């Protein structure tokens, strides 16, 4: 488990959902709303990361959108993503060439 996950567990274990918290911008917000905002931000960052990784390895159209075998736009969490062998090979070569073989 990652350190960030552990830290999140510690923070949320002491969370009081009905307490008023003050954000860095001075806004007062209750614990439930602040927790929801934090989780939404984490979810958004995770989705962006997944999208970035998928675009490195899977087929995209001219606009950079992920596509399935029919050329239809799909999301990063779709089961219909098509591996782009050229992208995959390029990335694999880059990784292999950056490692010291000894």
Structure description:
The chain has 3 helices and 2 strands. The protein has a two-stranded antiparallel sheet with strand order 1-2. It has one domain (3-98). The protein has helices at 3-13, 31-57, 85-98, and strands at residues 20-22, 28-30. Strand 1 and strand 2 (28-30) form a beta hairpin.
Q: List the secondary-structure elements in sequence, H or E.
A: HEEHH
Count of discrete domains: 1
Residue windows where pLDDT falls under 50 for at least 5 positions: none
- CA radius of gyration is 20 Å
What is the helical fraction, as a range of percent? Answer: 40-55%
Broad structural category? mainly alpha
> Could you give the count of β-strands?
2
N- to C-terminal distance: 30 Å
Q: What is the approximate shape?
A: elongated
Strand order of the largest sheet: 1-2
Please work out how many helical segments DSSP would assign.
3
Share of β-strand residues:
5-15%
- The averaged pLDDT comes out at 86
Fold topology:
Blueprint: H1 3-13, E1 20-22, E2 28-30, H2 31-57, H3 85-98
Antiparallel strand pairs: 1-2
Give me some keywords for this one.
102 residues; two-stranded antiparallel sheet; 2 strands; elongated
The gist of it:
The protein is mainly alpha-helical. The protein is built from three helices and two strands; from the N terminus they run αββαα. It has one domain.
């Amino acid at each position: 488990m990652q350190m960030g996950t552990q830290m999140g567990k510690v923070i949320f274990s002491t969370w009081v959902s009905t307490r008023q918290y003050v954000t860095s911008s001075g806004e007062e917000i209750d614990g439930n709303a602040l927790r929801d905002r934090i989780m939404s931000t984490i979810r958004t960052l995770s989705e962006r990361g997944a999208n970035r990784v998928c675009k490195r390895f899977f087929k995209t159209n001219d606009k950079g959108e992920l596509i399935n075998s029919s050329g239809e736009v799909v999301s990063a969490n779709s089961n219909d993503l098509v591996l782009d062998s050229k992208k995959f090979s390029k990335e694999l070569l880059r990784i292999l060439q950056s490692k010291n073989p000894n």
